Every structure is written in C-alpha cells, then in structure tokens.
C-alpha cells in the first residue's frame, strides 16, 4: 500500500487549503494540463470526455425544444462589436485582437469572439423577413476567449468551451418564456445529471449581462461554501434588435422589431462537479457523467483464471461504461488511481472470491464495500449506479441547505459572512448602493433574487429601508 | 408550378457555369451564409447538421481504433510555431496574429492555430516518459484559421471546422501503420457514408505536408472533372520529436525518440458532396449523411383527412429522419424546396391516393416515381434509402472511371488535360522538375502516387527518362 499512499499524498487536503486541493485534483486526476499560453488549458481525455457527456445530454435536451445547431465565425470586426453600447463596454476590455493576417496588417481589427450576440444579430438581420421566419432557435458549441488577468482551470480561463444559444421571437412574451424555459432546462440538467442542486433566480441590475434587459442564473454552492454561477439565460427585449435593425413584417404587414434571448453554459460546470463532490482521495464523479462508471481490478492477476473472470465481469456489464485495469501495477495503486479519477464503482476480484463465486463491490462516494454473487453483478451494479447518483445529489443538497443562513440585520449578516462560509438569505431594498456597500464591507455579492421568495423581514439588511426582495448573498468564484 | 420554376431558376445551370452553380447551391440550399468577416462563413442548420452527421460517424470509427478526444488551446506562441523549420515555413505566411489582449500589447505574438502539431508536440514532451505511455492516440474537433487570399465556401475559407488526429508511437513501423490505417479509415468512410469513391495514394515530395516525412491522401473527382484532396494522413517519423525533444525510456531503459503521425479531415468534404452528387435542381444528399432523409408533402392538404394520413406516414417512419411539410406553400414550391435541399426521398399524399390506400414515392437522385401501398411505406422507404445510397456511389464511380484517362506521351497528356476534364494516369521519373514542367505548361498537378500501381509505360510522360511511378494527375480545387 506504499504506492497507494504516495498518490493520495500528492494532493493537499481540502481542509488545509481548498484552492490548492482543487488545483492538485484537476492535475492528478488528469483532467487538464497547462499549455505554453498563459491561462489556456489542455483538456485531457478524461476532462474532455466529461464535456462530451455534458454536450450529448444537453444537446438532446435543446433539440427536444426545437433548437438547431449552427456555427458562426470566431472573429468579430471591431465595428460590429461596437454596435450595441452596453455590450461593447462590457466586453471590449477583455478581448483578444487579431491585427495581422499572414504578413499584412488588417484594415480593421478583429476580436476573437468573447460571445457571439453581435454575429447572431448581424445574421438575423439578414435572414429574418416575415413572421413566418420566427422564432429562430439557434445554438452553437464552440470556444470563446476572454482576456482575464487571473485564471484557474475550468473556473476562469482565457479560452473556454461552451454552448451559446441565441433566439429571436415575434413578441416580448415569447422571448421571456424562452429565457425562463432554458434556465429551467439548465437547472434540471444540473440536478439530474451532475447531481448538483441549483438556486434559480434573477440577477441584480449590477450583475446582469452587458446589453441584457434581464439576466437569470443558476447558482450552486461549492464544498468550501463559495457560490458558483453555473449558467445564465438573458432576455434582451428588443435592445439588440434596434441596434442591429432586426425587423419582420407581422401578419398585418407592419414592421416590428424581434425580441431576443441568449443562454450559455460552459466547461466551468466541470469545476462545479469537482468542488461539489470531490474529497481528499480526489475526484468523485456522478455516474451519469462519469466517462468510466466501473473499474474492474483483478487481485493476484497472475493466478490462473483471475484475468479471465475479471474480463467476464467486464463483458457482462453491457449497459454501463466499464473498464478493466490489467496493467502490471499493484492493486493498491490501481485502487488509488480509480479513486483519484472519481470512477463511481470499483469491482475487486481475486482467487478467493472466484472460489466463492463472488466479488467485492466498492462505492467511490462513501467507500462502502459489499460482497455480491457473480451472477448478480449486472443487476447490482446498475442499481448501485442509480443509488450513488441519488445519494450524491442528496448529500450535496444537505450540504448546501446546512450552509444556507438567514440574516435579519447587518451585524448578523457580517458575522455570518465572516465566520460561516455559505449562502446568506437576506432582504434588499433593490438600491445598488446597498449592494456596493455589502460587497465592499463583506466581500459578498448578490448571487440572485430567487424565484422562490421568502419574506424574512420588511427591511433591507443593509440600509434598513423598505425591503423589496429576498436575495441570496455569498462569496463567489 | 410557377413557383417551382422560380426556385430552380434561381440557380445557374452547372453546364453553363459550374463555379456559379456551386455558389448558388450552397446559398439556396441554405447550407451557409456569408458573414461580415471576409472569407468566414456561417454554417446554417442544414450545413451544420451534415457536419454533425460526419462527426458522429467518424468519431465512432476513430474511437473503435482506440483514439481519445482532447482539446488544445486555439493560440500558439510564435516561438513554439518556429520550433520545426519546415513546418513554420509552410504555415507562417498564412496565419492570423493576435497582438493585443484587452488593452495591452502582448510580449509575444500568438497565432490562431492553422493546425496543432506544435501544441501536441509540446504536450507530448511533457506527458510521455516511458514505453508504458505509448502509443498516445489523440484527436480533436475544432476550427482552424488559414489566411487565404481567395476563398470559396467549404473548399477554402479563412476559418474551417475539422478534426485533427495526432499520435505518438514507440517505433517507426507503428507510426507508419497508423498513418495508413487512418487513410484507409477515411477512404472507407467516404465511400460508405458519403458515396464518394476515393483514390488512395502518396503525395509527391513537392505536395507533402510541411514537416512530414510522407503524406498520404484520398483524392476524389468532382462532377466538373476537377480533383479534390479530401483528407490527408501524415507520417512524421521522428522529425518533430527531435525538434520538440519528445523522448521515452524503452524496456531496456534507453532513451528513444517517439515517432508521430497526424491526420485531418474537414468541412471541405461537404463541398465534395455537393460537387459529386448535385444537379441542376440543387443538392443531392446521400441518405446516410442527409439531415432529413424523407420529406412528406401533403397534396390538397386542406381536404379533410389529408394532413392526418400524412402525419401517420411520418409517424410510421421511426427508423429514419423524416419531416412533414405542412406549411401553407404550394405543393410545387414544396417539391422544389425538397429538391433544392437534396432530401433523398419525397412522399406525396393526396385525397385520391388516400382513397386507394397508397402514396407516391419519389427519388431525389433519379427523379423516378413509384406508387406504393400505405401498409408497405416503412419497408419500401428503408429499402429505397439503401438503394439510393448504393446507386449514388455507383454513379459517382462510373463518372470518375469514365473521366480517368491514360497518357503515354506528353502530347497525349497535354491534349487530354486541355480537352477532357478528369484524372490522367501517367508515368513519372520522380524528379520535381517534371512535376513543375507539367504544372506550368498544363495547369495539372500530381494528385497522388496511388497504392494500386499500373505499369503504363517505362518512360516518364514528361522527360522520357526512366519512369519510377504511376501518378494520377489533374487540375484541382
């Protein structure tokens, strides 16, 4: 077991230093590697396979609501980026600029897309003519670039992978409906597939997307008590349509502006999976998203028959993603690797088990072991994968709920933020001054105004004036 | 039928002007739209869906050979690009340069990847240590940028989507084997799925990839008799490994350089599908790659019962990709749209058909009509999709074979190139001078030295000296 110890010792414990634990896990679990470009990461096979599983599941859910995929260019001419005032102010400071093509200087600089609203608007202004052309429900899977000063794998990188949906509708109501529909789709996906409970709500004016009328968000709580914005859905009203002149003739033959939405979700979610479910042995992946769900580890594999039976077990598990580790490493080392990589189930099979027609089955999330008969492997493994998925969600939900606090006045608020990492629910007058005050004096930001409102008190937790909304506050990534 | 005529008239006939016909079809079939960046196209839903089908099928074939997907950054530091001499000479003149991030000038320029050999090499030099780490069989799906002066949708654009596989092996033999394996995989895929016959062979020294030891290619013949390089597979030997210092310790504990390959295939293939199968009514898509395989068009759809039966037909066709066109356009217009979009089968169903418990089934590739009973719709449609797929391949093969000529001397060669668009098979001495001569005086280039060699004559078609190889020559895209 010396080897085993070595691999675990390679990661800092999360209680000692959570950020370092995180960085250790993403590297040691071989999700990413650093590249020679500052802030750009390499997604290794396991990291990319998680993203592929996210894509496959989300893409099917998008298409079921009528969404079609397209692909827009990665470059945006500077003049196009500047067409919507708020939007350019929000993004221009953090874009990468292409100034030369081949050996020639370009007449107009091109930015590498930080997001593609402007391109979609330009496209929509060309292809939308009549009410018959609406709605347009387009999405693209691509990478975007934001020139961040400080970067962290998955959470904040110069380039990241995401999907961005962009829709155009005949009416404001249709756009609003689609904005909420996609937010709900995101939340359900995260809860069902990633086992991460989400708070759904609206962003404050200060925190909303550059150019949006309303921004909606799903917020999750990480193991260290910090919040992570996990996906956003924006209602643009007709602001972009007016800036880009996207009009259609309605049934009465009158010209109308379209109403638009956009919504995005990125590889940041992989950061959430790590920070919600991980432990001091490494990654813990929910079965539905795990690239490998079951690892079969033979014990004393040189003994006659062991590898054969191990292989039979693997072959039996046709309905899940299973691998057999038949390398010449020690079983202890193999256990430790399977744990580091977060594979939900380990099956151990050795000569003594074979004699008794059984094997040992070990849960990654709890460490629980059970002995099962070889005949029932398939049934038990499938049941256990379901159980693990459910238990992981419940555990994450309990953790979040037990780290969600209520503050009725500012002293209480400050005390909680200073000493108890988590969400704080508190009332707000909706004045930006209070939001700024809170941020300056506590470091917490307004995460969202949840759809599920509660009346905690009648007064704003900061200024004491009349409260309008209950807000989730917290420190965030 | 006035409407019908209108849509078809919108495209130039291929006999009059093949390049214009091509441009008309990609626009009218709504595969692409132009963007506000020169040479960058927008892939619209039908264009992108063809690419998704290509991806899905190819990706499964890659994975079956042990390939894993990863994602590398889109930026390459200038110093990294320069590490392999031939490679940088080949690509530097046609890359886009990022010089500013946010408001700051970068210390080192970054190029937007034109291909990712240098990034993979840098990565491999970090992660490969021992023979146990080999082979590495990585692939990525992404977009790349090449700053071309003249662009054409799908065939040559500033940015295009592709996959690039990069592998590292212990021995030269393993690398060679993988290079050929992937070329064969490409050819089989194109023949089985895209119904396009391919010539497999090796590129000449002059035509090979910048930095490769050998480049292999699959070449297809378009309807106008021009050749299209449709996919390439490169054997790098240990050239990149030496430039990037990618070494491993072998079983005898000695340091060795790895041997590498790369192979790529792009949205250019969509251009091949259009130019091999299309006709004067628009696109003709092979069933296996068509986003929609069957379009049901109701006739007199306002008559009671018509839409219901049309819908029943659609519901019955569970094993194929089927749509029902119930818009308020005329049937003639719908026919013409379905033809323009290249949907392989049209089903027409009207009140008279319903009385007789039948429907009309029309092949897009031949225009043939047949009457079938409603009970047999599913069986007949599935059979017909298979038949169309096969027939389209055979038709493309006959066209290619009947446009492949043999030239024994230079006069004959020049006469064929000048008057008969197609491939010319002719012997070559393997001197670059003859290749250059032929290109200058005829416009034809060496497409490949096919695996299936024939001994046409003992003399080089150009200089008359001793011939070493039979070459396919042709004008190309």
What does this structure look like?
The structure is a homodimer of 477-residue chains. Chain A is α+β, with helices and mostly antiparallel strands. The first copy, chain A, has 3 domains: 2-277, Bira Bifunctional Protein, Domain 2 (BirA Bifunctional Protein, domain 2), CATH 3.30.930.10; 294-385, Rossmann fold (3-Layer(aba) Sandwich); 404-474, Translation Initiation Factor IF3 (2-Layer Sandwich), CATH 3.30.110. Chain A has helices spanning 2-9, 18-28, 45-64, 78-81, 85-91, 117-127, 172-193, 239-244, 268-277, 306-316, 331-340, 351-355, 377-402, 410-419, 432-442; strands at residues 32-34, 41-43, 68-69, 75-77, 96-101, 104-112, 136-145, 159-169, 199-202, 214-221, 227-237, 247-249, 255-257, 259-266, 294-298, 322-324, 345-349, 358-363, 369-373, 404-406, 423-428, 445-450, 469-474. Chain A has an 11-stranded mixed sheet, with helices on both faces. In chain A, helix 1 (2-9) packs parallel to helix 11 and helix 3 (45-64) packs across helix 7. Chain A starts with a helix and ends with a strand. Chains A and B meet through strand 2, helix 3, strand 3, strand 4 and strand 5 of A and strand 2, helix 3, strand 3, strand 4 and strand 5 of B.
């Amino acid at each position: 077991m010396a080897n085993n110890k070595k691999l675990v010792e390679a990661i800092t414990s999360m209680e000692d230093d959570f950020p370092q634990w995180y960085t250790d896990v993403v590297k040691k679990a071989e999700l990413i590697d650093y590249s020679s470009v500052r802030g750009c990461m390499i997604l290794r096979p396991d990291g990319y396979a998680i993203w592929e599983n996210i894509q496959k599941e989300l893409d099917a859910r998008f298409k079921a609501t009528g969404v079609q995929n397209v692909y827009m260019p990665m470059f945006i001419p500077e003049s196009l980026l500047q067409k919507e005032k708020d939007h350019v102010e929000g993004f221009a400071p953090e874009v990468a600029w292409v100034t030369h093509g081949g050996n020639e200087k370009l007449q107009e600089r091109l930015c590498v897309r930080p997001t593609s609203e402007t391109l979609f608007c330009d496209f929509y202004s060309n292809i939308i003519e009549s009410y018959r052309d609406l709605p347009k429900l387009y999405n693209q899977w691509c990478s975007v670039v934001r020139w961040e000063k400080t970067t962290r794998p998955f959470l904040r990188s110069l380039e990241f992978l995401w999907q961005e949906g962009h829709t155009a509708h005949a009416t404001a109501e249709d756009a609003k409906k689609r904005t909420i529909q996609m937010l709900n789709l995101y939340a359900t996906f995260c809860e069902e597939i990633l086992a991460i409970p989400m708070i759904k709500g609206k962003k404050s004016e200060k925190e909303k997307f550059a150019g949006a009328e309303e921004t909606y968000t799903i917020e999750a709580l990480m193991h260290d008590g910090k919040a992570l914005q996990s996906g956003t859905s924006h209602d643009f009203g007709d602001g972009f349509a007016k800036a880009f002149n996207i009009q259609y003739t309605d049934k009465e033959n009158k010209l109308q502006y379209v109403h638009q939405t956009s919504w995005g979700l990125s590889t940041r979610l992989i950061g959430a999976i790590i920070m919600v479910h991980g432990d001091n042995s490494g990654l813990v992946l929910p079965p539905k998203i795990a690239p490998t769900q079951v690892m079969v580890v033979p014990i004393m594999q040189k003994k006659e028959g062991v590898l054969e039976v191990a292989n039979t077990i693997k072959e039996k598990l046709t309905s899940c993603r299973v691998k057999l580790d038949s390398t010449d490493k020690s079983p202890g080392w193999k256990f430790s690797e399977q744990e580091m990589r977060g594979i939900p189930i380990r099956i151990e099979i050795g000569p003594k088990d074979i004699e008794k027609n059984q094997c040992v089955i070990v849960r990654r999330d709890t460490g629980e072991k059970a002995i099962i008969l070889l005949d029932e492997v398939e049934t038990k493994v499938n049941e256990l994968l379901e159980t693990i998925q459910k238990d992981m969600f419940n555990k994450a939900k309990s953790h979040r709920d037990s780290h969600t606090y209520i503050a009725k006045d500012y002293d209480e608020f400050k005390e909680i933020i200073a000493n108890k990492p988590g969400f704080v629910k508190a009332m707000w007058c909706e004045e930006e001054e209070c939001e700024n005050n809170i941020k300056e004096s506590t470091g917490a930001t307004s995460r969202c105004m949840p759809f599920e409102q509660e009346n905690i008190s009648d007064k704003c937790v900061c200024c004491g004036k009349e409260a309008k909304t209950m807000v989730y506050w917290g420190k965030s990534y």
